[in-house]
Amino acid sequence: DYGYEWVRNELNNNYLRKDVVDQITINESSNPLIKLDVNLKNSFQANFEMGKDRNLSMSFSNSQLTEISRLKFVFGTGYRFKDVELNIRAGNNARKLKSDIDLKLNLTWNQNTTILRNIDQNINLMSSGSDVFNLNLSGEYSLSEKIMLRAFFEMTMNTPYVSNAFPNSTTQGGFSLRLTLQIFENIFVFF
């Protein structure tokens, strides 16, 4: 039917498609592509993870394909010290705590790239990208059934591929206290 598939442009009297597709995007994600978690009887833990992401975006207005890709590797290890006793004293009161200490170390490497591909001129240009290295060390100790004490240290180093960005790094560490509240223990429904 005329008027449903086409739209008439009043300025130059041309017919235009009613639905115009300016861009097509394809997103691929294999995260994790490979994952391995090992817990041994001697309380040693190890993990490995590999992941890949890719986003392709084709723009028909400027004939440009934008490819954003990420490759990720994670290596981790940990150890659980069982039944560690701590004595806490506050004034005249003393309390003896007994719980496991769970130590974890994760090393993560990410490779991020953004490539602009101009199809008409056969030009490929890397617009951004970086290597990101992350070190994460943490330890957890349960003070009670509902209170968890955590100490952590995290360092992130970013090394860019392009010359208009600078290498940077961030470091943070500290303690956190997690409180778990259970509001509804038993719920009864009466009709």
Strand order of the largest sheet: 3-4-5-6-7-8-9
Detail the poorly predicted runs: none
What is the first-to-last residue Cα distance? 59 Å
* Percent of residues in beta strands: over 45%
Counted by DSSP, the helix tally is: 0
Residue-averaged pLDDT, rounded?
A: 88
Anisotropy-based shape: elongated
Look at the helices and sheets and give the structural class.
mainly beta
Q: Which sequence of SSEs, written as H and E, runs from N to C?
A: EEEEEEEEE
Described by its quaternary structure, the protein is single chain
Helix content: under 10%
Strand count, sense and closure of the main sheet?
Answer: 7 strands, antiparallel
Q: Rg to the nearest angstrom? A: 28 Å
* Number of DSSP strand runs: 9
